[in-house]
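If your schedule permits, I should be very grateful for your opinion on a structural question. I would ask you to consider whether the tokens describe a fold that such a sequence might reasonably adopt. Thank you for your consideration; the sequence and its tokens are set out here.
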Amino acid sequence: QVLLVESGGGSVKSGGSLRLSCAASGNTYSMYCMGWFRQAPGKEREGVASIDVDGTTTYADSVKGRFTISQDNTKNTLYLQMNSLKPEDTAMYYCAADIDPCGGSWYETYEYRYWGQGTQVTVSS
């Protein structure tokens, strides 16, 4: 079992930055793929970025060049650095993990077995 706890959300103005963290505990050695998702009110949850156990990263087109996913294996923590934030980035952000390597469907929610409770990000214009 793996427990994921997100933190770092908040309210910022357009153009600002935030760094989200996701602390993992439990059988973390079994995690191969980790990702960040977001869900805005009335919309489906969408994949933002993923990182594989070998460090390979993938991003949604909407955040490329602005967001950076990284992990600190010594601390069992996943990060999402978000720069140049836009109002359309407003959403609940979720951390996710799976025991299989990231694949071509990294952006699909069904690819992930474990989920955090989410942290709210609000960007005002």
In short: The chain has a mean pLDDT of 95. The two ends are 40 Å apart (CA to CA). DSSP finds no helices and eleven strands in the chain. Residues 14 and 86 are 5 Å apart (CA to CA).
